[in-house]
Amino acid sequence: MAQIPDNPLILIDGSSYLYRAFHAYPGTMSNGTIPTNAVYGVVNMLRSMMRQFASERIAVVFDAKGKTFRDDMYPEYKANRPPMPDDLRCQIEPLHQVIKAMGLPLISIPGVEADDVIGTLAHQASKAGMPVLISTGDKDMAQLVDENVTLINTMTNVVMDREGVIEKFGIPPELIIDYLALMGDKVDNIPGVPGVGDKTATALLQGIGGLSSFMKSLMR
Length: 220
Known about the structure:
By secondary structure, this protein is an alpha/beta fold. The chain has helices at about 15-25, 35-50, 70-75, 85-100, 115-125, 160-170, 175-185, 200-210, 210-220; strands at about 10-15, 55-60, 105, 130-135, 150-155, 160.
């Protein structure tokens, strides 16, 4: 298991926590006015992280309301996703209030997703030599792993450093973006290369070393 440095910058993917908690805990939980299953679940997950990894530097990052720059670039982005359930939507603001009451910084920036904020902060911190621990269940985040950035999936307690990414995906973190480009993402409605799935994408990248190398070979 990868070692976590002392006092890392902990970046928590609050949006990932939100959906996981909503589906993991009974929907019948309520404070008498609104459901509270997602609030209860996220708070438990946050408390668990804070007990397990003591740090003076921690932030919880959420998606902001409204469209992002990706919607402008590709109008079909996430077009196949159903709208957020009402019994989840009504818990977001109370959850934000609870997180702030816990004394945790909460970041939500219009026009970008939580992933973008986490990626930016992690990159900046890593360049400054600061250890970073990202808590998320999103496989896309594997592209952020480097000598200073580590991932943890709190649902499985799996920690991934560079060697962990290679072990899981068969390729290093710097090729994850090419891997995702080849496969596409059905959840986000992003098309990939027809006929290319997990194993084919991995084999191609192991063989050619990245899409830029592949394109250069075609132009020779």
